[in-house]
Design goal:
Helix content is about 70%, strand content about 5%. By secondary structure, the protein is mainly alpha-helical. Strands 1-2 form a two-stranded antiparallel ribbon.
């Protein structure tokens, strides 16, 4: 059983909760063997979990990650998986580029409102009657 991992060990290794791993299992992304009530994750599950975590970090949906993982099982050459991966990378880049433009515009707008508000405050401070 040297090539198996418990759920707690995998959770520690990947910095997630055991609940997260069970969620991925419920979604069919990983499929541990069972020894009574205990889940036994093999090298394949560990690799799939690593790929899931990478996909999540890149912003892919679990559905997209699942499609990529399923393609790996169907096409051992990984060509179909890589094509889908490149397609999803390009989609993600386009989304992030649009968000970058939106964030830049929002920052500029916030700066304008901040400057106007500070100018109004300065003007009101000048008009405030002095007591003393």
């Amino acid at each position: 059983m040297a090539d198996t991992f418990g759920i707690a060990a995998l959770a520690r290794e990947f910095g997630v909760t055991t609940r997260t791993i069970r969620f991925y299992e419920d979604r069919g992304l990983i499929a541990p063997k069972r020894a009574g009530q205990r889940r036994l994750y093999g090298p394949r599950d560990r690799t799939r979990l690593k790929l899931i975590m990478r996909g999540k970090r890149l912003g892919f949906s679990l559905a997209d990650i699942g499609k990529m993982l399923d393609l790996y099982d169907v096409d051992p050459t990984e060509v179909a998986q890589l094509r889908l991966f490149v397609e999803k990378l390009r989609e993600r880049k386009k989304t992030l580029e649009r968000q970058r433009v939106d964030v830049a515009a929002l920052l500029k707008e916030l700066e304008v409102f901040e400057e106007r508000s500070l100018a109004l405050l300065a003007d009101k401070d000048k008009r405030k009657p002095r007591v003393g």
